[in-house]
């Protein structure tokens, strides 16, 4: 069709006699030497009734050049441009519908013939389109060749990776065995180290409990007869078991296991664990050392040689400070009296952070050597295992790319690792071919998935003219978003438009050389010469 349109000027001189408003393809139906048969076959009329401004045929075919039949059509020859059919009722209506003005032959309106100018512009447009198609197809052939080379390189790389994978798998298994062998003495040495430390901790704890129990027994044994009696135990009301604030004889005897008194060994084994959390020592805490009086000579040396007399404001401030110090001293005395009335528990409160005794000591030299050797084996194994995972991922990616349908000749393969954007007034649309389509607010915000790669979606005769992206982010109370990408021929790869024809269904147009068809052969150059 492109060649025919470019050759339109050659056909301008062809003219066939026919009634006004009849196209060249239908002129054989209008033979003035015989009656006219309506094109729908409904009626036969004399030929002189054709274009007599009266509608005889139901289909309006007897009045192609007048406005008599509302359902008729008028053919604009438009020599130099494209032929055109218009409604018969537009004939002689005072509006120039045909570029050659033939539709206003009897309206009194003079129509300028613009067909040649329109034809010129049309040919320029067609020539530009033909140039884009030619250049785009040239680039397409380059893309096809590039993919052939790239595909061969990827296939070769895949073969090399698959061969190297077996060797790496064997290396990983060998290093796994080395790691496991190195971890056995490491585990034994660490377990032995922990066991010894835990045993030391247990012995130390037992010794501390023994000392606490002995101190408590010594405090309870008021008569120092080597036994704690019920009466002696009753001197500690904090050991009350029924909550009445006093330790009765029966409660004390129950604590002593039903006996009236108990020796030190039995006290430690049977009683101490039951009372240790409640027991309060009778021994008062050691008072903090009173700071010694400062040396007057030192004070005098520190003071300036000639002190200035205090002002009235300074005297008032000193009096206020003295009153505050007196109040603090009174508060400290009250707190001291309270602390004397309530002796502290025998068991000191544990600090929040573990002490040095609670921390496991460093490993000995041999154990640390086992740990270092095992860690080195682990590092080598993990590095080899990581390399194997990376290689397996590369193999999967290559297999997927090589087997992907990139068009009849792989012309769309170059889009595989690219992304293209289109910015509108509100959004930034992003197309990553064969992966996904997204939309992000121009003023900031998270992107919305408009669909992930589904399949080629062109018509059966042109499958690779459109892409379908499906299962995007769901619309509120609606379906999941989806996008159809229409591929257009162009010299550059660029997204030229994005619309939403229906709710949650988007249409995007991508211009690419890969979509350019093979152009028709250019017409041979004509020799321009005068005919005699």
What's the helix and strand layout?
Blueprint: H1 2-6, E1 36-37, E2 44-45, E3 73-76, E4 84-87, H2 115-220, E5 227-229, H3 230-233, H4 249-255, E6 261-263, H5 264-275, H6 296-302, H7 312-341, H8 365-403, E7 420-423, E8 427-432, E9 436-441, E10 448-456, E11 466-470, E12 482-489, E13 494-502, E14 505-512
Parallel strand pairs: 12-14
Antiparallel strand pairs: 1-2, 3-4, 5-6, 7-8, 8-9, 9-10, 10-11, 11-12, 13-14
Helix pairs in contact: 2-5, 2-8
Description:
Helix content is 39%, strand content 14%. The chain has eight helices and 14 strands. The protein has an eight-stranded mixed sheet. The longest helix is centred in the first third of the chain and has 106 residues, at 115-220. The two termini are 32 Å apart.
